[in-house]
Amino acid sequence: MTTREPLLRGQLAIYAVAAVAAVALVTTTVLTWRPGTPLSPIVLAALAPSLLLGFISLASRYLCRAMPLRSSSATSIITTHGGSAAAASGVWIVAWNASASALGQPVPDSTLLFMIGAMLYVATVTVHYLVLEVETSREAEDAALRYRVLAREAELRAFKAQVDPHFLFNSLNAVASLCGTRPADAREMAQRLAEFFRLMLRVGSLERISLGEEIDLVTRYLAIEQVRFGDRLTTHINVDAAAAQCQVPPLLLQPLVENAVRHGIASVVEGGTIDITASLHDGALRISIDNPADPDRVVSPGEGIGLQNAAGRLNAVSDGRARLSAAEDSGRFHVEIELPR
Amino acid sequence: MIRTILVDDEPPARDILREFLGAYDDVEIVAECVNGFEAVKAVSEHDPDLLLLDIQMPKLDGFEVLSLLDRSPIVVFATAHDEYALRAFEVHALDYLLKPFSETRFRAVIERVRERLSRGQPRTAVAPLGEALRKKPLQRVVVRSEDGSIQVIPVTRVDYIEASDDAILVVTGGAKLKKQQSIGDLANELDPDRFVRIHRSYLLNIERIEKIELYAKDSRVAILRDGTRLPVSRSGYATLRELL
Predict the structure, then answer these.
(1) Facing residue for B19 by CB, picked from A181, A269, A296
(2) A162 part of contact set with chain B, CB < 8 Å
(3) Does B142 contact chain A (CB < 8 Å)?
(4) Which of A173, A188, A227, A265 is the mutation pick for testing B, counting most B CBs within 10 A?
(5) What does the alpha-carbon distance between residue B68 and residue B191 come to, in Å, rounded to a whole number?
(6) By the 8 A CB rule, do B77 and B95 touch?
(7) Each residue of A311-326: pLDDT tens digit?
(8) Is the ipTM of this structure higher than 0.85?
(9) Model pTM greater than 0.80?
(10) Angle, helix A165-181 to helix A183-204, in steps of 10 degrees
(11) Does residue B185 have a pLDDT over 60?
């Protein structure tokens, strides 16, 4: 995403100086000129001090940036800008005097000059503050937009990663296989598959579901994988009643449990146990998934995406307060989630 | 008789293969294997005509199984993954069954097997894997020792490879494991940014290098972290300098 060009850069700064200088030039010329005298020497005398005032007014932008309206007290803003307005006007008067005497022109009344200088200065400060406000709100808008895009991307990736198509193909192969020898089991497997996908489509469209519902989905998934892996897959699920009531983003655990089967159980000759636990600690929901995994397995390019997605979604729903950690040690893979309420 | 071995880690997948094969009087199942280790062992024991092989399995995948065979039977892959089809073709597999497959599709496979066998085509030696794997470097090296046991060594754990007569020695953590392959073929399969042919007889994992020393005029020696000293040829040194 490109950041927008800050205002008052380059050309714009030249215009600002020119505008202030032009206003100063015109007003002082009008006030000094007496009908019947030539105009051009007075314009000439006003030119240099007016340009100087233009630059001083532009420089006040830095002062404005250093003292943002939102975080500075009204008194400090008034005193600082009042002081610098007076100083700017002083410089402006001195410059006018010098320029006029050098060119042998009359000097306008100092009080009038002071008022013009101060007013122009205050007017530029007001413009600076307006521009800064617009920039700040644009930045905030950009940040909000970026955040929304990131959250949406995480959702999409998560949605795509929800189901490995090979899970479907292998499960259908199991159904085809059971048809020949155990038709009743084939029918049951087909029903399990249908129920799992129906449930997944339903919860996928929700904002939040209870952990209990997510665990229900995961249990159905594991029951299907059980048919494929037979004795190689055992599961232990231990979820506190209080934890089951907690609200979680849908399909938070499902891809992680799918990983536990695909990269874990499937990589180990003798298989093993997938352990899922969830409980409440000091009001925070803690979930852990633990499974065996061959440390020497060929790491497929997709491995780790499921974890990244889960971390991204947790971040999006908890404003960065949730924590997800994964570790692999002596043949076991362990994922831990902590979600503050 | 078509002597057949079927290899799949999922029981229902083996069931359907067995059921479909049961329809043919001229097919005999001589072994069923649930992983790659068993498959390598069963093939060398039974010397089958046909190998029905899954690809994604624990420990050894289907391609690694093939790379460990002395003689290759006719190979038909059966997998739910379509992304390996090109590789399967490159290792001269006869066919590639996508799960779930129909009985009609399976019959076509058996007919092709019969045809291939009736032509009495000589059994090919193990299909060259190098070409197929060059696109994606090996992640692990599989070695079958003389007693038939199989070792799977992730490339990160390989220190270096040494040519030894017509075979090579894969050196990992002090152990030297013999593998029937030429050092040039293996060099082609490994990641060229990690494994450098520092010498005609040595392929070195550059992460093991402690330092390179001048040994004599125009001859250098690589000293590894564990103190091993390996000769570095002039062209080997040029490649190393480019990488390091």
Answers:
(1) A181
(2) no
(3) no
(4) A173
(5) 20
(6) yes
(7) 888 887 787 889 999 9
(8) no
(9) no
(10) 160
(11) yes
